[in-house]
Design goal:
Layout: E1 2-9, H1 15-23, H2 27-35, E2 38-46, E3 51-58, H3 71-80, E4 95-96
Antiparallel strand pairs: 1-3, 1-4, 2-3
Length: about 100
């Protein structure tokens, strides 16, 4: 099992909407993430900078790299693109973060 962390950027004024959409995450999206080997997935918001910090656990045999090719993920990206920084393909602009410390 390995941890994966990344950051994204929320548009100003959409803090409550971002939380609402994730509180109502589509069951088929949650199932797809689990099927890909993602677990213990959390997203935190820095309210001063509107930076979203995500951390997730990936199983050793995960298929997370294939998620961008699934229809449900593409549909979620299209749903979220209006409230966060997004790429031309609607995927969120994600910056990977390097782990520098961990206590287990």
């Amino acid at each position: 099992m390995m941890r994966n962390a990344f950051k994204m950027k929320l548009h100003k004024g959409f803090e409550a909407e971002y939380k609402r959409r994730h509180d109502e995450i589509w069951p088929e999206l949650a199932a797809e993430l689990q099927k890909a080997g993602i677990s213990d997935y959390s997203i935190f918001l820095d309210e001063e900078t509107l930076t979203l910090f995500a951390v997730q656990k990936l199983s050793d045999n995960n298929s997370a790299d294939n998620l961008p090719n699934t229809e449900i993920v593409k549909k979620w990206w299209a749903y979220m693109k209006d409230i966060m920084d997004s790429n031309p393909d609607n995927s969120p602009v994600c910056k990977p973060l390097r782990e520098v410390f961990h206590i287990d």
